[in-house]
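Quick entry, no commentary yet.
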Amino acid sequence: MKKKILVIIVVLLILIMGIAFFAIKYYYEKVNQQEIDSSIHGVVIGEKVPFYLEAEVENVKQLRLLNKGENVYILDEFEAHDIEWYKIKVDGKINGYVRAENIDYYKEINSEKVLVSDVSQFNVDKTFESAGDYEVFLLENKISYVYIRAGGRGYGSKGNFYYDENYDMYIEACEYLKIPYGFYFLDEALDSKEIDEEVSFIKNFISENAGENCVLPVALDVEKHDGKGRADTIWDSRYKLVQELINDLDKEGIDTIVYTNAQTANLYLSKLKTKFWIAYYPEENKIPDYWYFDTEQEGASNTRLQKKTIGWQFTEHGAGDDISEDLDVSLMKKDFYK
């Protein structure tokens, strides 16, 4: 009898200890998640950054070195010993301290015109190897908005739909940094039936992939393909189909702008009831301190476009010493996006 009672007591103690263990584990996981949720999402921008147990530089344990592009959660910012420090969380669970100069995070820019990056699968490997690499680029170059290629309709005769192979990497980077972003889609519709198909494609893509920070209007990419595009034979009337696509997406509650090059916009698309994002590359070695309509490019005097243009892609190869990466960069009017 005593032996049976002893066994029961042992079992009860094991149960109580198990419950206590899981309760404590749950509590610390909840506190840890609360810290992450209320933190600023930062990125390591220095090389081999010391991560300390305390906000000291002498006689203090160094937990490890942080790598450039590594994601961290900033819990606090303060000054100690004449040094600016961040208290951060690494790997989602380890708290420690780093010099603030080695960590950066997305800060809203208040300029009238802000820098915008648009990216696709073609920037992977050539420009960026990971979401972390892209995050460092965004922070170092003070990029305010991002456009991510969703996919489009092929410009060959079949006109099959395709998805960008790396859109999810860019979404991950923007969602982590809380940078406002949107998608762009390449249109090649030839008739109303194909417009309906494109509406469904765009609607489904947004439904399946848009995160909390996907707040920019969809950019409809309408371009010439040197006579090889399936829609290159209908430019005189193409604006009607593009307007139909804009109107049908509007009925679905999807805001849009149109991306195209300056010459095409001037010759064929300025009648559209939309806002324009114009591509024109007069001088690709620096960030311009002027606007597209200050250039002498043919069409820069088009008053219809002047009233409707909110974005200018001024380079497809970076901007010299200002932006060394080989990619598209634009200026956009911030008031429109507000």
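second:
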Amino acid sequence: MTDRVPPFSIEQIGTNAVRFPSGIPIPTATDAAVDPYFKTRIPKEVQVEGVMFWPQVKGTYPGLVLLHERWGLIAQIKSVATRLACEGYMVLVPNLYGRQGGMVTANAEVADALVARIKEPDVLQDINSCCEFLNTRDQIKKNIHGVVGFGIGGTLGIRFACQRKRLRAAVAFYAKVTTPVTVLKELACPILYHRAGADPSVTDEDVTLLQRAAQDSGKSIDVKTYEGAPHAFFDESRKDSYRPEAAQTAWTSTVAFLAARFQG
């Protein structure tokens, strides 16, 4: 553990459910105020639903899009969002299963089925719209964004880091590397990759792909391996896989990495 105290306490963090259209310009508060039909109009576009966390102290903050594991938008990922908000970020957690009804599950087979039904282009569009939504908030530093993801969220985060050119940072925990090499060459920002050493789903070839992408794109990729740690070692809700020491080390390096990318 560490004696470091984050700049904000949990009591200073606000939270709110959010909903906004995917793939089109996001209405601002001013747009809503001057539109008499805003609250009653039935939207035609797909809507992104999620939860937002931010410090309730006057100021502007960098934005983070936090992408959940295969279980869905569960309490554990909201806890991570709160911790990131305490570090001085406005954090948006979209429901990656929103197009599938927004399911949450504790069943591995159901979770795998949900992941299999994800259409990557659609979800990447939703994640991009999260950044655009953050830009409509008064407390946000415009276009100063990063992405943090776990498992399937980390996989999507790496892919998104090759798509959004203005992204400042990406952090991926125990994510499979499924992004094609030709796309990885378009990497737009540095990546911090936390590898679970005992996770057979992530191979040495995956890590090599990331390292080659760093060389081709001119961006840095810092791979940190936690020997003996299984997949989901950061998830304290899963007692069989949780490794507190590895989780604390990963958290400390994540906080430092994000601070270095967003300072100034």
